Amino acid sequence: MTMTENKPTTVIGTRMLRREDPALLTGEAKFTNDLAIPGALHLAVLRSPHAHAKIKRIDASAARALPGVVAVYSGADLASMWAAPMPCAWPVTPDMKNPPHYPIAVDKVTYVGDGVAAVLATSETASRDALDLIEVDYDVLPAVIDLEEALTDKVVIHDSIGTNKSYTWPLLVEETPGCVEAAFKKA
Fold this sequence. Notes:
By secondary structure, the chain is an alpha+beta fold. The chain is about 20% helix and about 20% strand.
């Protein structure tokens, strides 16, 4: 390069020194989980082991009695506080059927890992220990784990919409033969 030429202004292909490595390699790095904020509470969520089940009963009395536990909430406890179900972030089609979805399941779980109860405690340890003390009785329902089976609606997961099919989004591939090839030619 001569004095009159511009130097590259890109980092692509340029070796960059990572400033964070020394702290990471010596164990001195700080992460969000390392922060101790005075008065902050720790949240732990009890999750369903079942793919499809009605919640018959939740007994959180032992969890509530655990030292450090501030509150334990089930979906039923919180239902009256929610103005409406959580909105769908992106309705795909105008006729989309969107089942109501709440942060914590109210009467029924619809997937493994669905939240069943939330614990607030003064420490992470107390919040996690409290989860082990919550007793949940489920009425386990048939689950659907196959897409083809789900489309038959033999087992409907979301009763409120009456089907497992939320929407149909037609792809132009089916409507316009040759459009894939044309797109590749344009690319």
